[in-house]
Amino acid sequence: MSILVTGGAGFIGSHLCERLLLNGKKVYCIDDFNNYYDPEIKRHNINSLLDLDNFNLLEGDIKDNAFLESCFIKHHFEEIIHLAARAGVRPSLQNPLLYAEVNINGTLNLLELARKYKVLNFIFGSSSSVYGNNKKVPFSESDKIHGMISPYAITKQAGENLCFNYNHLYGIPMTCLRFFTVYGPRQRPDMAIYKFTKLIYENKEIPMYGNGSAERDYTFIDDIIDGVVKALGNRYPFEIFNLGESETISLSNMINLIEKSLGKKAKVNSLPMQPGDVNITFADINKAKRMLDYNPKTKIKDGIPIFVDWFLDNHK
Length: 316
Fold this sequence. Notes:
The protein is an alpha/beta fold.
């Protein structure tokens, strides 16, 4: 079974490619190695995979439809796991047009080629950001989505809607996975846990937006990969699943865990809450448990030390 993983050199994508290869799959990775963060980090993520017979790197941009079609013609993908995206809530406020071009038009390019070349299954990496400042917690897939507060979140909901449409019109099996704040080894350097760990390690101030009470449902990378692989093995006409830990921790308590793991005290610079940031993310994972046998195992008190150990081994 040949599988295309878009964004396959990124944080989640590289871990997923490794797991699929261990499971005996033939994996094609598309990545454009853009400058959202140092592209050498992503090249390092997949460096150990490049010589494997079942791994193929296809370097290019999902906005480039001619490049994509040449890949579909040559390699005959049977399934697609679409993770490539412009990520991050705050940067989307500065460059919403780019986010729309990549996350909406790039997704549409892939869906149209999936239709044209009769792909058997399509999995879309969505985000808990689509819930916005949802009043009901925990967030359920059946909740009405109407309170998105960032361009990034809007582009992710648009991707879900496009997936629904292509299932409705063309019968392509579609699964949308709403990831809840993924962390762990290889985490993007712009994300809070990585950024705070680095700044505390370097004895620099960390920016804490708000009073530290904002809560997040942090999900360890291995649990996310388990969920994606189980979604791949359970083909549905169209479904949406939350993939989270279904536990929350406040920003101040998360900082405390990093302090304990590093053995260093943070220098905190308290700042106002940022536009686009939500007060809480909290996943109801009952549907994923029931239909995918999804069972996250790593609590944040255990996951933070694993990340910090990786950081200390790799920060240079």
